[in-house]
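One example copied in:
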Amino acid sequence: MKINKLCIAIFFSVVGLFSLTSLHAQEAKTLFVNMPDSLSPLLTKVNRADCVDFLESKMKALVENRFGKKSEMTELGKDYIRMQISPQTTWQMKVLVLNDTTNIICTISTACAPACDSSIRFYTTDWKPLAESQFITLPTMNDFLNTPDSTSTSIYAFDEARRPADILLMKADFNKENTDLTVTLTTPDYMSKETAEKLKTFLCRPIVYHWEHGAFIK
């Protein structure tokens, strides 16, 4: 009986050690290098590995991408990476803890032309896509605006300012120091200066999401 208990204890110790080792191996740099080429159309696996090696060697992580242009890794942390893919596009990834034994990956792709717009995607650690709706509810236009009370005289100015804002553009950014995600309305950036200024009068602060219990919460 004592032998059986000892075997069971050893088994669970080995399982626990394996789980911790697996989670440790799921650092951003390892996941980034092993990302499928289909999800990294401009960067080869060699490009990605070189970026990691350069930054870890305190060198400028600048590589030539598949289009013969320059891409640069600007941030590399245990759970965070940021790439300047081109002058107009950036890519970020964050490794998030889902539970005691499972991590997931969240990526942000941002294009600016000139107004910036981001897309957020979620993946397993072997880069299988996950439904966005499981982890975040993205803001609507009205979430960014301070809407006056319907009895307020400023409601007419609000309606006039809100009407031209017919396209929802948002820029998302991870905080490299923690798991916060900040989303900023960029719709005013494509509007004329005069029209944008009217809308900005009613803008709230950027929306900050906090990663809690396996989801981004406002």
User: Anything to note?
Assistant: The two ends are 52 Å apart (CA to CA). The chain has five helices and eleven strands.
